[in-house]
């Protein structure tokens, strides 16, 4: 059993969205002023992907079967590839990766610990949901990055190789232990609140009317991932 926390802390609840925000969900808003400077963006995204690689590596180590280990190694490798791609962008701008990522280490380490889960299925669901939501978020912010770096990063983060392995293993675990379904559904609902706090912290401003429709898009995608597993979001 994976237990990095002892007693699980209280989670941030997912924010409730207004009807007006839901109507704007399909409308793209100008988020230029919400995006931090480029190196700040790259540092946070790069360290998040490194943390995702570490979490997926833990999932590989603790996987119950050799087939699961082999499959999850693909997902871990994909996260590491994303990290390396972002590091390359930092170096193109004469940045030192450790220095650029450094400010985000404490908060993202706390996030990864808080969302690590108590066992292997919870860890897998966390990797699938938090990884998917924050990849979507950083892709959305990349729309407002300068020059041609935005399309490169969107392409890099948009390659979701390995997500199908997570879905397969989670679906198999739920089929083998039907009681997992309700527990994982609750866990998934808790994860979204913590993950949106990370997304909010990555923006240049924390209070702006343009944030709400961006979050509406993210929550809609999160709900689709939960639905795909047969879990109630």
Automatic annotation (TrEMBL):
This is Ferritin-like domain-containing protein. It comes from Cryobacterium arcticum. InterPro entries: Ferritin-like, Ferritin_actino. Residues 35-200 form the Ferritin-like domain. It comes from the Bacteria.
């Amino acid at each position: 059993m994976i237990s990095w926390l002892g007693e699980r802390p209280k989670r941030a609840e997912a924010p409730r969205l207004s009807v007006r925000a839901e109507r704007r969900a399909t409308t793209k808003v100008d988020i230029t002023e919400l995006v931090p400077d480029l190196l700040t963006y790259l540092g946070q995204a790069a360290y998040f992907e490194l943390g995702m690689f570490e979490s997926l590596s833990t999932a590989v180590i603790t996987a119950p079967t050799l087939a699961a280990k082999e499959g999850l190694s693909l997902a871990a490798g994909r996260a590491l590839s994303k990290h390396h791609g972002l590091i390359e962008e930092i170096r193109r701008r004469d940045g030192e990766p450790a220095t650029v990522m450094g400010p985000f280490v404490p908060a993202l380490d706390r996030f990864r610990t808080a969302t690590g889960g108590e066992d292997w299925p919870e860890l897998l669901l966390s990797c699938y949901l938090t990884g998917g939501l924050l990849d979507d978020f950083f892709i959305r912010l990349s729309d407002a990055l300068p020059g041609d770096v935005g399309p490169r990063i969107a392409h890099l983060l948009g390659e979701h190789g390995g997500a199908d392995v997570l879905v397969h293993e989670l679906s198999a675990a739920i089929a083998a232990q039907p009681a997992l379904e309700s527990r994982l559904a609750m866990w998934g609902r808790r994860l979204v609140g913590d993950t949106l706090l990370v997304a909010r912290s990555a923006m240049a401003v924390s209070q702006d009317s343009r944030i709400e429709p961006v979050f509406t898009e993210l929550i809609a995608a999160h709900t689709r991932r939960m639905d795909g597993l047969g879990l109630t979001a």
